[in-house]
Amino acid sequence: MKKLLLLLFVAMTTVAFAQNQINIESGNFDFLKDQTEVNVQLKFNNAVYQEKNFTEAQYIENRKADITAKKSEAVWKNWEYQWGQFKTSEYLNYFFEGINSKSKKVTFKNDVKAKYTLIIDAKWIYAGWYGGMIGSQEAKLTADLTFVETDNPSNVVMRLQADKIQGKKMNKDFAWEYGRIAGAYEVTGKKLGAEIKKALK
Fold first, then answer.
1. Separation CA 180–CA 25 (nearest Å)
2. What mean pLDDT is predicted for residues 140-168?
3. Which residues lie closer than 8 Å to 108 by C-beta, 6 or more apart?
4. What is the mean pLDDT of residues 96-112?
5. Regarding beta strands 21-26 and 152-166, do their DSSP bridges make them parallel or antiparallel, or are they unpaired?
6. SS3 track for the chain
7. Measured between alpha carbons, how far is 191 from 48 in angstroms, rounded to an integer?
8. Terminus-to-terminus CA distance in the chain, angstroms?
9. How do residues 173-184 score in pLDDT, each as one tens digit?
10. What is the structure's pLDDT at 147?
11. Which of 99, 98, 61 is nearest to 83 (CA)?
């Protein structure tokens, strides 16, 4: 019985340790040694949301019902606009803030003519929650991180996975889920930047 409990504890610890970190699946960072810039792209085609794995359409439909019932149509319209803005640019900006604060030798940017492109393909997004004085829960992000040749995207040079990366408190939009999700992109950037910095010493 003691052995069984020990094995269970080790298994649970291993699972917990594997989360909230960047895991290398194939390749290494050697290809970045002579690079100064990397292009970055975000993808959300295959993303699911929350513990119930809602599609984005389902998640937005639920939020619309909730916001219009508790607040107003005007608040919903602003939420819808901000959701689009964050997906288009703000998540990237937060990611850049995180990764470029760590990776000094290589700068990550959007829409640059670089030899390599990093594709951040979101797989699972947990939006967290905000309760003011009661407390709050940061967002979490699971995403495939794939480095490809910009001119030949089928040539993959490295694969990693961001596994349930927990965001940070606080930013100016933390009260809304898009702000909390942005925090998860920022921490993902920091963790990836730290790995690159370590590898390119």
1. 27
2. 97
3. 37, 38, 40, 95, 96, 99, 100, 118, 189
4. 94
5. antiparallel
6. CHHHHHHHHHHHHHHHHHCCEEEEEECCHHHHCCCCEEEEEEECCCCEECCCCECHHHHHHHHHHHHHHHCCHHHHHHHHHHHHHHHHHHHHHHHHHHHHCCCCCCEEECCCCCCEEEEEEEEEEECCEECHHHCEECCEEEEEEEEEECCEEEEEEEEEEEEEEECCCCCCCCCCHHHHHHHHHHHHHHHHHHHHHHHCC
7. 22
8. 47
9. 999 999 999 999
10. 98
11. 61
Mean pLDDT, range 120-145, rounded to an integer: 95
Pair of tokens at residue 186: 């920022």
Distance CA 17, CA 96 (A): 25
17 is written with which tokens? 């340790």
| Mean pLDDT of all residues belonging to the chain | 91
